[in-house]
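Case study B.
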Amino acid sequence: MSWGFLRDLLSGVNKYSTGIGRIWVAIVFMFRLLVYVAAAENIWKYEHDEFECNIKQPGCENVCFDHFFPISHIRLWALQLIIVSTPSLLVVFHVAYRENREKHNQKPYRNPGKIDGGLLCTYLISLILKTGFEIVFLVLFYKLYNGFKIPHLVKCDIRPCPNTVDCYISKPTEKMIFLYFLVATSCLCIILNLSELSYLIFKHSIKCNLKKYMKKQQ
Amino acid sequence: MDWGALHTILGGVNKHSTSIGKIWLTVLFIFRIMILVVAAERVWGDEQDDFVCNTLQPGCRNVCYDHFFPISHIRLWALQLIFVSTPALLVAMHVAYRRHEKKRQFRKGDQKCEYKDIEEIKRQKFRIEGSLWWTYTSSIFFRLIFEAVFMYAFYFMYDGFRMPRLMKCSAWPCPNTVDCFVSRPTEKTVFTIFMIAVSSICILLNVAELCYLLTKFFLRRSKKAGNSKQQPNHENKEETKQNEMNELISDSCQNTVIGFSS
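Model:
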């Protein structure tokens, strides 16, 4: 089980997405998943080993690292990728349900993958959930680490550190660059989701109005 | 999910590329991505562990390393490869869109559609003309821009392409100016120069492909213009013949009428 599993899942979602949805999938693959696996993971690999405090007191480094990094950036990033991709599965399940119904000849669909009726509601819900999760994670990042900056030095005075001790974080600039990259791609994905939402609502309302107009004419 | 997934995605685009585009893709995967994964990552693997400063002051090594390497070479190359590969997705999306339209026509039973089945549509190779030409050319243009930007960023950040053996650091909390030694500087310089050389080759290939596409475009346009000029001459000949026929017919009619009247 690895990121390949998520990749396969999302490839399945791609089939039933709109054009904007496919651009969203491409951005998640190329600029988030691939960058995470190929570059970002290695930066945070030895973050604990390379976290150094100006003290020989045993346990002080451990306690300070745990205080300043309750959950590592890279783990939060991985959680974000997984949770943000999951609402798309609702669409896959709904299409599978439709195909199942068709198989048992209960209700024949012209095209089970076409985004209309109940599937449209599911798709809209998945978009709202995706956007919501993205915003929640961005806020979480901001609140946990007091903004998107990573300092060179943090001052720690938790027991068993005897006094206020200087602790140095490894590769803070590189980590900050990738953090900004993460924020930028998240914002881009939020914008894409909102555009897709507006596009679908607009398209559907025009269709409804046209139908009403045709009925009136008759 | 790794570089193999990128290979699968770009492999699909390869079918619709020009020959130079196929060479570019081969160079990208063999001489850049493979070298990065198989060799370069090992060379830079211990970069911070083996970055040694001549001081016992805790934190000095971390701060000096961060000062001299704001972003590691390896990560910059990985980002460069990702950004440079992305424009090919535009072409992949355009091809997918065209296929989708053809499938829609086929399903509607459009008589204009010349395919026998859906499998044939999936296997079809699209020619680079019309709107696909514009998408393909824009993707090459963006590739060139990204390559150039990353090469400049590299040069700007590291003051050239050489990795020095020794760096002098006086950032706080280092007490004075401290000597810091980089691990494997020669090997890193060799790989840096190699990657820069292959980037330059890729830039040249992209420029050649761009020139080829533009030349083909202008040649096609001049052919079309040439064809449309020839057609009026052809039409004139036809008209002249018709006029002669009409005169003959009218002459013969007149003779017949005169014959009757007399």
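Chain B is about 75% helix and 5% strand. The remaining cases will be described in the next quarterly update.
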